[in-house]
């Protein structure tokens, strides 16, 4: 919430409660700022509510979620189900790119210090299988892939097809 919102709340509820809410909000903002500034996970884990608040706030920056916007471009996500939208914290993407692989993409900050990459012109599943198999050739003892989303079955199948196991 913005300072102006907190000031308006003082007209309706006790200043003490508003002050506590402001302090709590400042604590959340400090966590978010530290994460964004340091660009790495904090040593001490966050509460689920903090993680969800950050994801929600970031998703509000996604043009798919602008209240005044009705995205109709090919890169605009359209989610028919509110359940799916909530499951993904409001994040979504359509298909397509800006036409230039080296340009900043609408929903990807990119990595400026990347020196080499492989362009794999295939569907996600086959691309993942080939990439994982290539990594296994380079590192034959590597056998685990961290995959936190078992509901994405095609990616899960790719890991198994490549000869790896999920962790």
From TrEMBL:
Family: Belongs to the SepSecS family.
Function of the protein: Converts O-phosphoseryl-tRNA(Sec) to selenocysteinyl-tRNA(Sec) required for selenoprotein biosynthesis.
Requisite cofactors: pyridoxal 5'-phosphate
Keyword list, A-Z: Protein biosynthesis, Pyridoxal phosphate, RNA-binding, Selenium, Transferase, tRNA-binding
Domain of life: Eukaryota
Protein's UniProt name: O-phosphoseryl-tRNA(Sec) selenium transferase
Record's signal peptide: none
InterPro entries: PyrdxlP-dep_Trfase (IPR015424), PyrdxlP-dep_Trfase_major (IPR015421), Sec-tRNA_Se_transferase (IPR019872), SepSecS/SepCysS (IPR008829)
Catalytic activity: O-phospho-L-seryl-tRNA(Sec) + selenophosphate + H2O = L-selenocysteinyl-tRNA(Sec) + 2 phosphate
Subunit structure: Homotetramer formed by a catalytic dimer and a non-catalytic dimer serving as a binding platform that orients tRNASec for catalysis. Each tetramer binds the CCA ends of two tRNAs which point to the active sites of the catalytic dimer.
């Amino acid at each position: 919430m913005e300072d102006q919102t907190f000031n308006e709340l003082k007209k309706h509820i006790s200043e003490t409660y508003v002050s506590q809410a402001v302090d709590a909000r400042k604590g959340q903002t400090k966590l978010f700022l530290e994460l964004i500034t340091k660009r790495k996970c904090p040593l001490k884990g966050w509460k689920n509510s903090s993680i969800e608040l950050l994801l929600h706030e970031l998703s509000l920056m996604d043009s798919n979620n602008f209240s005044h916007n009705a995205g109709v471009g090919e890169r605009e996500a359209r989610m028919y189900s509110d359940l799916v939208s909530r499951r993904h914290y409001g994040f979504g993407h359509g298909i397509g790119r800006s036409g230039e692989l080296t340009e900043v993409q609408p929903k990807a900050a990119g990595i400026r210090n990347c020196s080499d990459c492989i362009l794999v012109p295939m569907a996600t599943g086959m691309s993942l299988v080939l990439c994982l198999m290539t990594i296994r050739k380079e590192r034959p003892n590597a056998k685990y892939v961290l995959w936190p989303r078992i509901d994405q079955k095609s990616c899960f199948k790719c890991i198994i097809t490549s000869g790896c196991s999920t962790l």
